[in-house]
Each structure stands twice: as C-alpha cells, then as structure tokens.
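Write out the 3D structure for:
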Amino acid sequence: MITVWVVLGVSGIVVQLYREKSRPFFPPSPYVMWKQERERRKTNVLDPSHHKPSLSARILGRIRQLTQRTEPAGETTPLLL
C-alpha cells in the first residue's frame, strides 16, 4: 500500500514539473512589472502617449499661443502686395 502512495506522489510531482517547466518559479514582483511596462511605453512609438509633448512644452506652447499676435485677414504673401 505504501508503494502505491509513493508511486502516486512521484508521478504527481513529475507531471507537475513537466507541465510547468516553461513557467518561472515565482511571478515577477509588481515593481519589476512596472519597470518593464514603463520601458515598453518609453520605446513603443506606436503608443499614443509616446507622441504627447511634455507638460512644460504644452504650457509654453499655450502661453505662446495666447501672446501671439493674430495675422490680419486676407493674403499675406509679399509677392501679391
């Protein structure tokens, strides 16, 4: 009877190790996952957040837009004056 339990235990361990051989022993920590996600976002040019200008650039652009003089209506090409 003990032999049956030993065989069942060993076969269970072998099957479990075979099924999970490609998995890591422990999942990565949340910090490591956050760093990997941050690096992926930093290098992924298809990510829309990659093309978003920084906060300081957006603020300076908004200030320039508010302080810029408006062009007069009509044609501004010097050749047609």
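The two ends are 107 Å apart (CA to CA).
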